[in-house]
């Protein structure tokens, strides 16, 4: 099936008129970058009217004529026929006869020169055929290129040669050619035959194979096309719908003799191969029974990366951020990033103790940050390798986000200084959807990093799985085609070809600021890791691999034979590097402690003390002065630019906001405004990203105003607050959670002085980003000793909207909190609350008031350290008349309230209270309404837990002690096996030393988060309220 599909596509012939059509469609409307069209066979200068502006006119007509000779005046038809037939200079043109002579007879008399050259039609056809042939190589030549170093697999999973490529291996073999030609004529679409081989053809402007020549014999045309497209480099680019970019690539690969290296460059390449190869051999010698996911079979990766970095540095880049999987990671750390070898070697010492927290999983996961001089360009360069989990490709968007942030902080709006390189395995690149999601961010204004260089270590196997079983696309790189990224496939056993494509890739990135892919087609000399036996599953491939000479040896032989190096020099290079390794190995034995902090990928200079501690263990008040609140409120309820017409509905919303401000109150949207606006004043950059966040899914935010009369005119009032404020970025994202959350996490990684928020459209959808949550956000600090202050806004609440728009799955976040449910911490400890925050892996809150939401957002920045913050945000409360906060709750001296205690009649006479209900979030309003309806304000106290984790043991103990006779119950609107119950209950029990039961008032366990039936929803709600206020409800259990 697969075979048929790809063959059919390749066999589809391109007709001459198709060729012309595609080209004419691709032509830019106005300025043309690449010189004159060179299709006329007679020299242009000989036809005087073909110069100056008239030539454009003639050119247009020429295209029209090519498509349909009848579409132009007969005289032009004659002219073009004559020129194409090779009429001598100055004779192609025949003046039209005067119109007065009568059109029919005049035209009849204007006989073209073609009569003298009866083969002119054939000539035109042959030229078009040659054009088609050239185009065939450009489009399909990569299918024929010799990409597999083992010579046994086809990189495109298809062994057939496209029918329209006349291919031979080394030199043009006539027998092969004849056979191919025969196939062509059977196909009937080119019309060339063997006798045409020595005819000279004019070359179209869409090829550079001619070099200085504008015409070549067909034999030479084919030879040059073979050289450009069918050797060790397969260039896939003709899907790019930009003529200038296609021309750029053609020029880079077709120009005769363009792939030249100086002896110096060859020696550097050899030295880099020596390092790459000998590093793996050294590890193998010293730790033969350790896994290291060695690079053997793709040693060329090291010089490849170094070439990309050298070239980019030469073009002005001074910061490269990289992400990569396991394969060759140690080698990259050692020989690209230049981590001290002893630091790498000591990771193999299992007895070394860690000096600081962190999982110690340094070898394959921890990141690195290193600044050094690039020896080739003599410029400073910073290299950072982002820590990654085992989950392949998950780090891609994180690297992108960090790159975007670094560009943002250094004002690099075009990506000229900071860039990223992403490495991929072939199976993972093809298989993981996150690759696609990340590609889709690459050209979005608020997410672009202005081009990433992707390098695929295409060892043609994924663990034990053959490519044929691992992907349905011809190449593992096909996903890159969606963003028009050129793809350079290259045989990794040809180091010079690899260097060349890497140079071109780096130049592409710095010229067009778009993604590009280098596909290193290689092999894996050992099993998936060094302990694995690959012959179980790939016996024939591995028989071949056993015979394969290592690339270093092959290249050294070439250079020795060319006289670029001699054997002793080569051996000297090897022993020099072996000695470096040995000496580092000796030093590594002196390492007594493993410093995981040395493996930070994103240091935050100045944020912590020199030994990495917070500068204090307190948090100042998160309140603001009345003036600031009022100022932000006024901007939030106005249009701060002139002549800007907003929608009538929005005017009403802003008016209501204005009234709230006058009344010194805030709703949810205003509270968020106040928090953001005030942090911007303090120089904190804020970035809010997610689907439809600009307006807000629930139409409450409206951070971007749209002029109703001027297309695309927008205004972001948040950026009009203060004269020297930090910038505010609010951006609607692509419809992705995994990619976008990963991206924002990466953005937040770059600096502690930014509030980076990702909002899910509904909290439910965060689970498609679960990998980022499970692998990075929850355990990031524990694994990789780096903190991150990302904020997740997850709309949550049971409002009868059905199973998919109700639950942000609080139970999952709570289950992953690292605090012990059974151990009561030392409540008397100074700064207990801050210490608790410092020790936790993330903070989980569910605010019941806008004021508290405001405080928790501000606290996120005012804390002297960073922790991820998960906020379950409301939906109906956004407009609930009671869900308002007074300015009084936000003034200087006020704080985020981890617990909001009962403050009604029950709190006045606590000893009379029969039941103390604990709850969190929106259900509070249902409970107070019900309590009022039942007139039970004296008997039932309701305490809100606003910060679920870390659990406020201290404040809850006070609450429990305040109501000595009260039964304790936890009330939630979520089903019993969901929500907060399983998290809260054991902790409440620990708080009271298990002195009393903690009862449950809520929905029964269920598989789905919510019913889709409104009536059932209301019945369930009433049932849980009945339980909450039935003072005898739990009697039967006691
Ligand atoms: C998301 C994910 N799924 C599965 C795995 C398990 N796994 C580890 S390596 C590997 C094969 C990877 O193949 P490829 O991407 O070609 O890289 P290679 O190991 O060949 O360099 C697999 C399936 C993983 N690490 N991550």
Quick summary:
This protein is an alpha/beta fold. It is built from 36 helices and 28 strands.
Descriptive overview:
- This protein is of the alpha/beta class and 1038 residues long.
- The strands form seven sheets. Strands 3-10-11-9-8-4-7-6 form an eight-stranded mixed beta sheet, with helices on both faces.
- β15 and β16 form a beta hairpin.
- α10 runs antiparallel to α21 and α26 runs parallel beside α27.
- The longest helix is centred in the first third of the chain and has 24 residues.
- It is globular.
- The N terminus is likely disordered.
- The site of thiamine diphosphate (TPP) has 15 residues, from α16.
How would the global form be characterised? globular
Uncertain residue segments:
1-53, 97-116
Distance between the termini: 68 Å
The structural class is: alpha/beta
Reading side by side through the largest sheet, how are the strands ordered? Answer: 3-10-11-9-8-4-7-6
What is the gyration radius calculated from CA atoms?
35 Å
SS element count, helices? 36
Identify every distinct bound molecule in the structure, by name, code or SMILES: thiamine diphosphate
- The number of strands is 28
Query: Largest sheet, if any?
Result: 8 strands, mixed
Proportion of residues in extended strands: 5-15%
Helix proportion range: 25-40%
Give the mean pLDDT.
89
């Amino acid at each position: 099936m697969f075979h048929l599909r790809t063959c059919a596509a390749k066999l589809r012939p391109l007709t001459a008129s198709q060729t012309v059509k595609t080209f004419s469609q691709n032509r830019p409307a106005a300025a043309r970058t690449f010189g004159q069209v060179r299709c006329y066979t007679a020299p242009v200068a000989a036809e005087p009217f073909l110069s100056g502006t008239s030539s454009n006119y003639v050119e247009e007509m020429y295209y029209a004529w090519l498509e349909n000779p009848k579409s132009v005046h007969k005289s032009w038809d004659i002219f073009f026929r004559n020129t194409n037939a090779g009429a001598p200079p100055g004779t192609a043109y025949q003046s039209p006869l005067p119109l007065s002579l009568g059109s029919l007879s005049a035209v009849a008399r204007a006989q073209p020169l073609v009569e003298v050259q009866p083969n002119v039609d054939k000539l035109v056809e042959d030229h078009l055929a040659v054009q088609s042939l050239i185009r065939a190589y450009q489009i399909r030549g990569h299918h024929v290129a010799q990409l597999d170093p083992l010579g046994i697999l086809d990189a495109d999973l298809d062994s057939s040669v496209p029918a329209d490529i006349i291919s031979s291996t080394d030199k043009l073999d006539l027998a092969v050619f004849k056979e191919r030609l025969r196939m062509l004529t059977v196909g009937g679409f080119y019309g060339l035959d063997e006798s045409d081989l020595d005819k000279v053809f004019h070359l179209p402007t869409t090829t550079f194979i001619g070099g200085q020549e504008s015409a070549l014999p067909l034999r030479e045309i084919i030879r040059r096309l073979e050289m450009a497209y069918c050797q060790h480099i397969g260039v896939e680019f003709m899907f790019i719908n930009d003529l200038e970019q296609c021309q750029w690539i053609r020029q880079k690969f077709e120009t005769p003799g363009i792939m030249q290296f100086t002896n110096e460059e060859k020696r550097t390449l050899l030295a880099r191969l020596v390092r790459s190869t000998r590093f793996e051999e050294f590890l193998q010698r010293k730790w033969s029974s350790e896994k290291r996911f060695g690079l053997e079979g793709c040693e060329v990766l090291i010089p490849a990366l170094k070439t990309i970095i050298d070239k980019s540095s030469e073009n002005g880049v001074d910061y490269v951020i990289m992400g990569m999987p396991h394969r060759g990671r140690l080698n990259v750390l050692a020989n690209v990033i230049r981590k001290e070898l002893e630091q790498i070697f000591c990771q193999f010492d299992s007895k070394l103790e860690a000096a600081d927290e962190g999982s110690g999983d340094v070898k394959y996961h921890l990141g690195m940050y290193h600044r050094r001089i690039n020896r080739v360009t003599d410029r400073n360069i910073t290299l950072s390798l982002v820590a990654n989990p085992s989950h392949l490709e998950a780090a891609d968007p994180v690297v992108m986000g960090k790159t975007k942030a670094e560009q943002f902080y250094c004002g690099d709006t075009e990506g000229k200084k900071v860039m990223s390189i992403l490495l991929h395995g072939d199976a993972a690149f093809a298989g993981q959807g996150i690759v696609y999601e990340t590609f889709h961010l690459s050209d979005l204004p608020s997410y672009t990093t202005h081009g990433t260089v992707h390098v695929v270590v295409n060892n043609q196997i994924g663990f034990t799985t053959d490519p044929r079983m691992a992907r349905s696309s011809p190449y593992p790189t096909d996903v890159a085609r969606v963003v028009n990224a050129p793809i350079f496939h290259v045989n990794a056993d040809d180091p010079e070809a690899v260097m060349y494509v890497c140079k071109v890739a780096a130049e592409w990135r710095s010229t067009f600021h778009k993604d590009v892919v280098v596909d290193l087609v290689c092999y894996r000399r050992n099993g998936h890791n060094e302990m694995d036996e690959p012959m179980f599953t790939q016996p024939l491939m591995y028989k071949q691999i056993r015979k394969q000479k290592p690339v270093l040896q092959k290249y050294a032989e070439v250079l020795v034979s060319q006289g670029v190096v001699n054997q002793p020099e080569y051996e000297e290079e090897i022993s020099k590097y072996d000695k470096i390794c040995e000496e580092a190995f000796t030093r590594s034995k002196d390492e007594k402690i493993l410093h995981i902090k040395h493996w930070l990928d994103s240091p935050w200079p100045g944020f912590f003390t020199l030994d990495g501690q917070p500068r204090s263990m307190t948090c100042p008040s998160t309140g603001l002065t009345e003036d600031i609140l009022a100022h932000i409120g006024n901007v939030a309820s106005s249009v701060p630019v002139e002549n800007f017409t907003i929608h009538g509905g929005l005017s009403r919303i802003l008016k209501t906001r204005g009234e709230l401000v006058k009344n010194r109150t805030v709703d949810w949207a205003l509270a968020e405004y106040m928090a953001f606006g005030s942090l911007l004043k303090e120089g904190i950059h804020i970035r809010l990203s997610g689907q439809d966040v600009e307006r807000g899914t629930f139409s409450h935010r409206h951070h971007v105003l749209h002029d109703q009369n001027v297309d695309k005119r927008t205004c972001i009032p948040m950026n009009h607050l203060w004269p020297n404020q930090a910038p505010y970025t609010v951006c609607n994202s692509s419809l992705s959670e995994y990619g976008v959350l990963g991206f924002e996490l990466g953005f937040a990684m770059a600096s502690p002085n930014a509030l980076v928020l990702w909002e899910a459209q509904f909290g439910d959808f965060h689970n498609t980003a679960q990998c980022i949550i499970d692998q990075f956000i929850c355990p990031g600090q524990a694994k990789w000793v780096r903190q991150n202050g990302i904020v997740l806004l997850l709309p949550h609440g049971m409002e009868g909207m059905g199973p998919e728009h109700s639950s942000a799955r609080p139970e999952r976040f709570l289950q992953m909190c690292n605090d012990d449910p059974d151990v009561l911490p030392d409540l008397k400890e100074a700064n207990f609350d801050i210490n608790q925050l410092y020790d936790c892996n993330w903070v989980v809150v569910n605010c019941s008031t806008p004021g508290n939401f405001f405080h928790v957002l501000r606290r996120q920045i005012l804390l002297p350290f960073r922790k991820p913050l998960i906020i379950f945000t409301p939906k109906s409360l956004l407009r609930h008349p009671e869900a308002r906060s007074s300015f009084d709750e936000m003034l200087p001296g006020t704080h985020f309230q981890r617990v909001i205690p009962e403050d009604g009649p029950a709190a006045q006479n606590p000893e009379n209270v029969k039941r103390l209900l604990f709850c969190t979030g929106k259900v509070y309003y249902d409970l107070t309404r019900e309590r009022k309806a039942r007139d039970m304000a004296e008997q039932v106290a309701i305490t809100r837990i606003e910060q679920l984790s870390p659990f406020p043991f201290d404040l809850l103990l006070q609450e429990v002690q305040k109501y000595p006779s009260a039964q304790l119950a936890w009330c939630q609107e979520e089903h019993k096996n969901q929500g907060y119950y399983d998290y809260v209950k054991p902790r409440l029990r620990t708080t009271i030393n298990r002195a009393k039961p903690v009862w449950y008032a809520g929905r029964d366990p269920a598989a789905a988060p919510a019913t889709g039936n409104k009536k059932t929803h209301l019945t369930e709600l009433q049932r849980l309220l009945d339980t909450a206020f039935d003072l005898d409800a739990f009697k039967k259990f006691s």
